[in-house]
Write a structure and sequence with these properties.
Number of helices: 15
CATH topology of the largest domain: Amidase signature (AS) enzymes
CATH class of the largest domain: Alpha Beta
Strand content: 5-15%
Number of domains: 2
Number of strands: 11
Order of helices and strands: HHEHEHEHEHEEHEHEHHHHEHHEEH
Largest sheet: 11 strands, mixed
Structural class: alpha/beta
CATH superfamily of the largest domain: Amidase signature (AS) domain
Distance between the termini: 21 Å
Helix content: 25-40%
CATH architecture of the largest domain: Alpha-Beta Complex
Length: 489
Amino acid sequence: MTSSHPWSLTISQAHHLLANKQLSAIELTKSVLERIKHTDSKLKSFITVTEEYALQSAAKADSMISNGEQTMLTGIPFQAKDNICTNSIATTCASKMLENFVPNYDATAVTKLKSKGAVLLGKGNLDEFAMGSSTENSVFFPTKNPHDLNTVPGGSSGGPAASVSAEQCLFSIGSDTGGSVRQPASFCGVVGLKPTYGRVSRYGLVAFASSLDQIGPLTKNVQDTAFVLEAIAGKDPKDSTSNAEDVPAYSDYLDGNVKGIKIGVPKEYFIDGMESDVANTIRTSIKTMEELGAEISEVSLPHTSHALAVYYIIAPAEASSNLSRYDGVKFGYSDLDSTDVWDALEKTRQHGFGPEVKRRILLGTYALSSGYYDAYYLKAQQVRSLIRQDFVKVFNDVDIVIAPSTPTVAFPLGDKISDPVQMYLNDIFTIPANIAGIPAISIPAGLIKNMPIGMQLMGPHHSEKTLLRVAYAYEQASNHGFLKPSIQE
């Protein structure tokens, strides 16, 4: 592999060139920064680019390599979604409320990546406080899809997905509360993984819905996802919900062999209203799996139809609680044009939050209010248990399930922004995995009218090894690896 365009490398290719001294981390980082300069005026995937900091980090990475301390991610440039805290670098959540907030600590995932010598390039755009499916809810600007600049990149990790797709970084880390890594990965033709709940520490991730949030990687291929997951997974004393399972060398399991693996196809995921091209593309992908030796059978997840309603009660309820800290007193935006403390609180929240965030706070506060708690929140938690049990039951018979990541390809900018229900329906296939806390990965399954579509694999808790193995086998056999967009410098 030549390095005439180092920005176009995968993690393993870059690692090889760095190890053999055919490329330095500074050269690689400069190349990627140039790529950002040439493409981001069109894409708007970055909120902040930390050029000086990135070059300092790259110089440190070169020292690590010289001293024989190289890891797989040493010298590899990455982007972090802007709701993941970064020490001395603004973390805005794409909101007026936090536009001047500069944390004095790193999220654990960022600490782990830095300790491996990875190079932080800057912060990726998102829907405000990660609430949205199109990255049009950012207070700064919408991000565009590199495959068609008139369409959305998905959300809420639209900046990270677009950035990886346009090769402005070698990988990114996003957050997934109801599909916010997998849905934009599907729209942008990249790989996106939501790990098992608790597999990756949430410390330093600005909370949206604490029982659903999870940090996950977006990469150009499945092998790179394995490398990043190895680096960020593991127990963290700063996050009591992180679990103590050992972190395996996920990349060691990518052998391309899926013979005898049992794959379930849930009938509830092939629904009316879904684009027929999407259904046909996923069914073709399932045939590929069968040809590779996997055993395919139809399964049922009967409570799937309730997942969207459950999510839009539980997530806003948790958001209402988590976002109560933005009161204009301790940190963040404060409206100073007010008569007393209550007026200041009201105006701060009125002017500091955008319409989608306010909508979800209102929904959540209503669901938690006296007289409605039992009817809505408690009922939603009970149905959540049923959805979880559906998966437990199915995973007694099959190893993983396979489904579309999204019901459609990327839609035009502005198409659904004024219709919240249509926007929410985008996450209909991704939400159940968050509700059940199980791992799920979206991998490119091909193009429909030149736009990418993703296939989703879901497995039982801590089955990332199996998911990555199956995803890798499919990627190797299907030629749908990294679907490079046509965006030019």
